[in-house]
Amino acid sequence: MNISYKVKVNNNSEFEVTSQDISALDSVKVNNQSYHILDNNTSYKAEILASNFNKKSYTVNINNNNYTVNIENDLDQLIKSLGFEIGASKKVNEIKAPMPGLILDVMVKPGDEVSVDTPLLILEAMKMENSILSPREGIIKSVSGGKGTTVDKGELLIEFE
């Protein structure tokens, strides 16, 4: 399976790298944080200076030049497109359908108090059941649609107070 990653360097250059590209890379681990990389007959000395696993952000020194690198996989990009950002301080007040589908079950009703990761509803899309979980603590203000309702991508599903 070929997984793709969105890579942003110094918050201005953006490109896509696949797991196949990474496998084809000729690299040797020198020590815990340093690597020697050979690409198109050009040698690179790379060292990881700092890393923040939760933010998927790294400071890398390549041939005596420092770069800030942010890496997102498909799941990170989906989470961001849904408006959920891990560790973000913004408060999510609405949950919208991430894709067109059919609501199989709704586990909450207006007035219910929920906590983070409480199952809110199950959305069937592309023959897969997707559990939509609460991104925050709060009280449910409204639930749009019910069991058996078809929804389009971006359609409001649940609203918080």
Task: Describe this entry's structure for a reader.
The protein contains 2 helices and 15 strands. By secondary structure, the protein is mostly beta strands. The strands form 3 sheets. Strands 2-1-7-6-5-4-3 form a 7-stranded antiparallel sheet. The mean pLDDT is 87. The chain folds into 2 domains: 4-72, no CATH class; 86-160, RNA polymerase II/Efflux pump adaptor protein, barrel-sandwich hybrid domain (OB fold (Dihydrolipoamide Acetyltransferase, E2P), Beta Barrel), CATH 2.40.50. 9% of the residues lie in helices and 52% in strands.
Descriptors:
single chain, 161 residues, mainly beta, OB fold (Dihydrolipoamide Acetyltransferase, E2P), 7-stranded antiparallel β-sheet, 4-stranded antiparallel β-sheet, 2 helices, 15 strands, elongated
Instruction: Determine the fraction of residues in helical runs and give it as a percent range.
Output: under 10%
Low-confidence stretches: none
Query: Shape from CA axes?
Result: elongated
The whole-angstrom Rg is 21 Å
Question: Which CATH architecture of the largest domain is right?
Answer: Beta Barrel
Largest sheet: 7 strands, antiparallel
